[in-house]
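Narrative of accomplishments. A recurring question from our advisory board has been how the design workflow behaves on a single, concrete structure rather than in aggregate. To address it, we present the structure tokens for one chain from the evaluation set, followed by the sequence designed for it. No filtering or post-editing was applied between the two.
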């Protein structure tokens, strides 16, 4: 599939990588629609973790794109970091990671892509849309980044589902792949305290943040390579966690 043949839906297009992806799809001549929890240009307000929102999102996207979505980018995501337990050196008090933060990240980063993927696949089958491709934004953190109990679980789970969705959907000419970025220049990363960011970049062989456009190169590859499915493209400047 060529990029200019896609009717693309990018979730979380209000800022960061999603916003850059929307622009890059446009620049490549694709039809593109997006959503965010905040008002967003070229899209609608929708929460990917809400089933009703997701059904409405796909209906609105179909209308705006002039046909069913044939390229889904499951990009929307959040972080709510913290250690599983932490003992205060002075008081001895033990603080435990919040169940609410666990659930928020699982809802947006794992249930969200599931709901969008299910609706995408359902509409592809109902409308005989083929070929089609879905791209899930995982993360280098999926291998078990300390401080990210919730995020690592969601991003690892998303890769497992990428593999099985690819197996289940190949017969319908739907491919499913994932991208695992390292540290990319977006508000999510730029909100890290400077000392934490500096520490995070030290072990990166490329010694810099990646750019959203460099992640879009992976999207282009996945869209265009008709034999690529069920696998993860790692774009992390050579970092291993
Ligand atoms: N930035 C990085 O270094 C990095 C690294 C690895 C993976 N990722 C992943 O890439 C994706 C994009 O990251 P980013 O850095 O651009 O993040 P970001 O925080 O800059 O942007 C995420 C966007 O998603 C939106 N969003 C949040 N919850 C939503 C919901 N429930 N429904 C719809 N939209 C929602 C936000 O409002 C925001 O506009 C995320 O899935 C993230 O986990 C990012």
């Amino acid at each position: 599939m060529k990029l200019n043949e896609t009717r693309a839906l990018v979730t979380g297009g209000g800022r960061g990588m999603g916003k850059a992806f929307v622009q890059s799809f446009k620049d490549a001549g694709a039809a593109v629609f997006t959503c965010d929890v905040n008002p967003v240009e070229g899209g609608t307000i929708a929460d990917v973790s809400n089933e009703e929102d997701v059904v409405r999102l796909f209906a609105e996207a179909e209308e705006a794109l002039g046909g069913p979505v044939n390229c889904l980018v499951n990009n929307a995501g959040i972080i709510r970091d913290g250690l599983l337990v932490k003992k205060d050196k002075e008081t001895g008090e033990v603080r435990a990671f919040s169940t609410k933060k666990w659930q928020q990240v699982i809802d947006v980063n794992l249930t969200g892509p599931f709901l969008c993927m299910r609706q995408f696949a359902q509409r592809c089958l109902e409308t005989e849309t083929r070929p089609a491709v879905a791209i899930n934004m995982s993360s280098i953190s999926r291998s078990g980044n300390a401080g990210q109990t919730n995020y690592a679980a969601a991003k690892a789970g998303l890769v497992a589902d990428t593999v099985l969705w690819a197996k289940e959907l190949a017969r319908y000419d739907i491919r499913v792949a994932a991208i695992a970025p390292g540290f990319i220049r977006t508000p999510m990363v730029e909100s890290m305290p400077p000392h934490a960011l500096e520490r995070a970049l030290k072990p990166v062989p490329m010694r810099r943040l990646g750019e959203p456009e460099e992640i879009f190169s992976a999207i282009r590859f996945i869209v265009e390579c008709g034999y690529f499915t069920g696998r993860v493209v790692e774009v992390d400047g050579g970092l291993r966690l």
